[in-house]
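Here is one such tokenized protein:
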Amino acid sequence: MKLFTALLVALAFMSSSIQANEANTMARQTTVSRADIAAVAPALDKYTQERLLGEVWKRPGLSARDRSIVTVAALIARNQMIELPYYLNVALDNGVKPSEISEIITHLAFYSGWPNAMSAVAVAKDVFAARNVSTDQLSPTSGSLPLDEAAEADRATRVGQQFGAAFPGIVQYTTDILFRDLWLRPGLAPKDRSLVTVAALIATGQVAQMPYHLNRAMDNGLTQEQAGEVITHLAFYVGWPNAFSAMPVAKDVFEKRAKSSH
């Protein structure tokens, strides 16, 4: 049994490594220039330049830095590596630190899967190398932010009562790894970590998890205006259907928070 388990772990790691190498090769071979877009879909080029880059990215409801975080998170969550080099560079130009990009990738291993994170590592490696980013500029492997013990105890109790008997393993990992380790890592501010999580959920259509994480994001300092702008921004990167699926969920969160504040 131990040998079989070790074999499964090795195969999983090999699969992630192969996918990461394929993603890196694809990103290098199929990088799309503006000339490429104009040669194939000139109307798309016009929308890209005038609406997406010329308008959406300049809207006042969300900073360019936060838009970069949201965009990078969405691309990684959907394993869309062709555009990732460009947007990693944009993120760095907009003030996102290499250590924060490192931490975004680490965080998304848990929220969009190890293979997607490995694909992002393969792409980010070349971006970092081109910009002379050294390992001492990356996210630390240890360290911890303060934990809100009461809030975490309440979350753990609710999840345990709902799922503990049927799924004890994932319930325990959720407590031990996600909320008592990953979410306390200092490489990302709590608001930024929430932005990454909400963006990934919307990008992958996982709206069932949105109420908890959007509330957490707003508790961490995200405003209603910013949350609305995140969804508007993501419509262009993950599609109108995913954005419209997120809208009623977000609206319900906004309304319940407004009622509870009175």
In short: The first helix runs from residue 2 to 29.
